[in-house]
Write the structure tokens for this entry.
Amino acid sequence: MTGQQVDATNQETISLLGGRVLAGGRISRDEALFLFNLEDSADIIGLLSWANRIREKFKGNKIHLCSIVNAKAGACSENCKFCAQSSFYQTGSPKYGFVDPEPVLEAAAEANKNNVTAVGLVAAWKGLNEGPILDEVCDRIRELKASGRTRPDASLGIIKSQRVADRLKEAGLECYGHNLESSRRFFPQHCTTHTFEDRLETIGYLKNAGVKICSGGIIGMGETREDRCDLAFELKAIGANVVPVNILNPIPGTPFEKNPPLPVLEILKTIACFRFILPRQEIMIAGGRTVNLRDAQSMIFMAGASALMVGNYLTTLNQPVEKDLQMLKDLGLDPCWDSHGFSDQGEI
Ligand code: SF4
């Protein structure tokens, strides 16, 4: 940034950048870092008010709701340091094989009842290859699609062949969840059994198959603000449609069990910075929301969030869906159901 702009009051700079994004423009990495490094609470609240305007401009007052099913639990071969389901750590989390139709159809019925747009099948394993499991997965996706109006999503790990991605698409899969989790630089700090490149390659196969991409990350793992900034620009570069922001919920038994919680204003500022960098995406607040934000939860929408993961998480509890629906109603936000849940992305 030029010496001239740095001298401008922070509020003037925030307004300048906010106005540019509202007008369809972009912010640079340096400009984004300026926003990530705001410290003063008045500046951060100023940032939130612009993020809210950007959300309203590109997302209206619609809030998309997603829920997940733990379709295969525990005993995962990977060593992600935040994860209760890794076989590397003693966390006591449940272990079971790939699910039968019933739990998936129950989740779909619950989703239909609560205006939840999508149900995601999530599996705790390294990845998915051709074979009997892929056949079963495709059956579950077909059943989910046939169950009514819920969008069938899935998060099934690393994919190493275009054929597997095409099979998932043929079965009716609409969106694939595959977080980059953090910046390329920080990734080896939380996982060494697979790479950032493995995740980019997987996303490439799904995009080639015509499947939408749900990809975001986790904050609070010890990464820097620069890492969070770089993650947002990587997600912009891959053309993520939905961007989940998880906030670390330290699980006893994992290497991150003693990680200090992020301050609430730092979390809200991060969401707002993501909204500035990714103005048209669905920014979804996922895991760790209730334990980290407590009564400040509803401020996520002012910070720019346009989607919410509701219902319980894979191994931890969330607040009741009814409480989330009441929160949206109180804020005049519309938990709209939309077959695809992807409003016009336009220019990414
Ligand atoms: S790959 Fe997924 S399930 Fe396995 S340890 Fe990592 S985050 Fe957990």
